[in-house]
Design a protein that fits this description.
Strand order of the largest sheet: 16-15-10-9-19-20
Number of helices: 3
Structural class: mainly beta
Shape: elongated
Order of helices and strands: EEHEEEEEEEHEEEEEEHEEEEEEEEE
Length: 295
C-alpha cells in the first residue's frame, strides 16, 4: 500500500522559482494562451496567471490521457502536476486528465439597490427622488414585471422591457422629465414616495416577477439629508441597512440649479470598491489518481 501525497499549492511565480522542483504541485487560475506542437505526441501549453507570469504546461504524450482538445485558448484552468525544468525553463507536467480542471464561470445577473436620494434639494421630492439599480454580475437581466415598493407595501410594477446590462445600471425615479430634474430616467414609478423622517425612515424592496425579494434596503433620517444621495461601496457586500458602513454619502454633483444635488445617477458610485465575484465552478476529468509514497 501507500499514502497519497497531497499536491502543494503554488502560485505561478512560486512555480517559476523552482523551489518545489520534483514535487507534486497545484497552480490555480491559469489562462491558456497558446497550444503548441511537440514531438512523440508531447506538446506544450502556454499559460499565464492573473499577475502575468507565464508557465509552460508540458503534456508528455498519450499516456497522460490528455490531447490538444483537452485545452481551450482563453479558458482558465487549475493544473496539478510534477514541477520540472527543461533547458532551465520551468515546466508543470500533469499526469492524468483529472490533473486539468477547467474553471467554469457561468454568467449570472446580480441586481442590487445601489443608490437612492430620498430628499432632493434642487427640486421638490415629487420631481427628484430616484432609485438606482446596479447589476454587478456577469449576465444581463430583463426586469420587466419586477416590482419596487416601500415599507408600507405601496408598490409599482415595471411594465416595460428594461434590460440591466452586466456591470450596468438603470435609473428608476418618481419623475422622468429630464428638463425638470436633470435625470436620464429609465422608468418612473407613480404609487409611492420615499420618506425623509423616522426610524427607520423607510424601506425600499425590489421583487422579481414571481414575487421573490431580490434586494431590500432600510434607511433612517440620516440617509435622507437634503440634496444628498447615498450609494453602495461594495456591491458584493451586505447592503440591507443603509446606515451601515457599506453605504456612503455621494459627493459628485448632478442636475439643475445653482446648488445641484449630490449623487452619481446612473453611474459608478463615489467610494466604489470592486466587488468580489463568487468562486466559479470547477469542471475536471474525474477522481484524482494519487501519487503514492511507499511506507
Amino acid at each position: 500500500g501507500g499514502t497519497a501525497i497531497a499536491a502543494k499549492p503554488n502560485t505561478a511565480a512560486e512555480a517559476l522559482s523552482l523551489g518545489d522542483e520534483g514535487e507534486l504541485i497545484t497552480v490555480s487560475g491559469l489562462r491558456v494562451v497558446a497550444i503548441g506542437g511537440g514531438t512523440s505526441g508531447g506538446f506544450n501549453v502556454t499559460t499565464v496567471s492573473a499577475t502575468n507570469d507565464t508557465l509552460i504546461i508540458r503534456v508528455n504524450g498519450p499516456a497522460t490521457g490528455l490531447t490538444r482538445t483537452s485545452f481551450t485558448v482563453d479558458e482558465r484552468y487549475n493544473f496539478t502536476g510534477i514541477l520540472t525544468r527543461f533547458n532551465a525553463q520551468p515546466q508543470l507536467k500533469p499526469r492524468f486528465p483529472s490533473d486539468v480542471q477547467q474553471i467554469v464561470a457561468t454568467p449570472v445577473a446580480r441586481i442590487i439597490i445601489n443608490e437612492f436620494i430620498a430628499n432632493p434639494n434642487a427640486v421638490f421630492d415629487s420631481r427628484g427622488e430616484y432609485i438606482e439599480l446596479h447589476n454587478w454580475g456577469t449576465a444581463p437581466a430583463n426586469i420587466q414585471n419586477w416590482t419596487i415598493e416601500d415599507a408600507a407595501a405601496n408598490k409599482d410594477t415595471i411594465n416595460v422591457s428594461l434590460i440591466v446590462p452586466a456591470g450596468g445600471y438603470v435609473l428608476l425615479a418618481i419623475n422622468d422629465t429630464t428638463s425638470v430634474n436633470g435625470l436620464q430616467v429609465d422608468w418612473a414609478w407613480e404609487r409611492f414616495s420615499l420618506n425623509n423622517t423616522g426610524t427607520p425612515a423607510d424601506r425600499i424592496v425590489l421583487k422579481d416577477a414571481s414575487g421573490a425579494t431580490v434586494d431590500s434596503v432600510s434607511y433612517a433620517a440620516g440617509q435622507a439629508q437634503a440634496g444628498v444621495a447615498v450609494g453602495v461601496r461594495d456591491p458584493s457586500a451586505e447592503n440591507a441597512d443603509a446606515t451601515g458602513s457599506n453605504w456612503v454619502a455621494q459627493t459628485s454633483t448632478y442636475g439643475p440649479g445653482a446648488t445641484p444635488d449630490r449623487g452619481t445617477p446612473p453611474a459608478q458610485n463615489d467610494g466604489y470598491i470592486t466587488p468580489t465575484q463568487p468562486t466559479p465552478l470547477v469542471r475536471g476529468g474525474g477522481s484524482l489518481a494519487p501519487l503514492t509514497k511507499k511506507q
